[in-house]
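Hello Y.,

Per our agreement to keep a running log of every chain we model this quarter, I'm adding this entry. I've kept the format consistent with earlier entries: sequence first, then predicted structure.
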Amino acid sequence: MLITALVGSLLAANSFSYYGLIVLSQIGIGLCAASAAAINQIIDQKADANMQRTLNRPLPTQTVTNTEAIVFAATLGIVGFGTLYIFVNPITAYLTFASLIGYAFIYTVFLKRATPQNIVIGGLAGAAPPLLGWTAITGSIDAFPLLLVLIIFVWTPPHFWALAIHRKDDYAGEGIPMLPVTHGIKFTKLQILLYSILLLIVSILPYVVMLSGLIYLMFALLSGLIFVVLSFRFYIAKNESLAMPIFSYSIYYIFIIFIGFLLDKYFYI
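Predicted structure for the entry above:
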């Protein structure tokens, strides 16, 4: 999240004189993101205690009490929002707060257990960081950062569904309607493949609308084609052994593509 927010800021900045503002925005966004993550763990602590991936978190192991966790989450959120509002600008503070509410409450409390499309709808909150980084510098919402948001929004489902396949039994045991639980692994594999194709298409839009150049296009095409090939191999495979490799690659993918944006800005072709 912080890397994509940082890239959003660097793309918006026309000089290195903004470094102070960038540092403050990173602190504020990071604190609010940490607050959202802590709230998520407070709300989901019972489910976390029964899932292999999360049973060693501080609340299930009682390393931290509920009161301590609530105070911790509230302090992070208040300090983060205050940092953005006072030292950056109000629009970034409000957008960041909206993302916190979207993930910590709307997704965790309602969407997560309401629909197998939970991660698709809730993914908008997690897609906001590049927009937040951009508004921290410009104070305005523009087309370029919205394209960055769109890329992360489309990237989120195949990224998370690969993990959901790997942890399908955990989610099924807790009655959380993740797509592999409600529609099966084969259907989820197909969705990962289709979303990876859509991601490849969406990722070249910045070049199509002339908001980026050839350097970015090469990064987008190469990393996107690798994602599609991996997803296709996963779809036709007889087992789920590629789930975690795809999950791991998806993390590298989003890093690579945003590095491509930066290199394109500074070495435009």
